Amino acid sequence: xxxxxxxxxxxxxxxxxxxxxxxxxxxxxxxxxxxxxxxxxxxxxxxxxxxxxxxxxxxxxxxxxxxxxxxxxxxxxxxxxxxxxxxxxxxxxxxxxxxxxxxxxxxxxxxxxxxxxxxxxxxxxxxxxxxxxxxxxxxxxxxxxxxxxxxxxxxxxxxxxxxxxxxxxxxxxxxxxxxxxxxxxxxxxxxxxxxxxxxxxxxxxxxxxxxxxx
Length: 214
Description:
Layout: H1 2-26, H2 32-71, H3 76-112, E1 114-115, E2 118-119, H4 128-176
Antiparallel strand pairs: 1-2
Helix pairs in contact: 1-2, 1-4, 2-3, 2-4, 3-4
């Protein structure tokens, strides 16, 4: 997920930078339609990018919540996942908001400067520089937000791994009678079906380990 986020953010910064350059050097002339289209695409792309990141945290929190409910592992796993999701939500929405503000000011300038011959930004309701400053803030905000999201994803991955290991320990204890508690090591012994109880910790699944054959 982290490598995917890196690629998406690089593309986002490039698109935002291209839209800003077109707007500054030719937004009021024949290049305005291209600036408008690229700016609109950049706005939607940014919103989609951070929404994907937030959905990742929703899914991970749901997975840990099910492990807590079904095997009664430590509820602290779910509480920490919810805090990570909340922090990521604030970061993602902030990054989206600054891009939305840039798009709205640009639309306001475009609507108020439209003439029969084209667009005259000197007649805009607000100075063009405001839109450009917001565009620069948008470009700067994306790597910063992505850096925080990148770190949070790493923490979430480790948290999910630990929670599922604890879940597997509970499943092994319940299925094979092993004394391992939540998050503890599962002894290397076989249950009455001839299956090692340690296989419960072999992957992040919620299956009964007795169903798997060697």
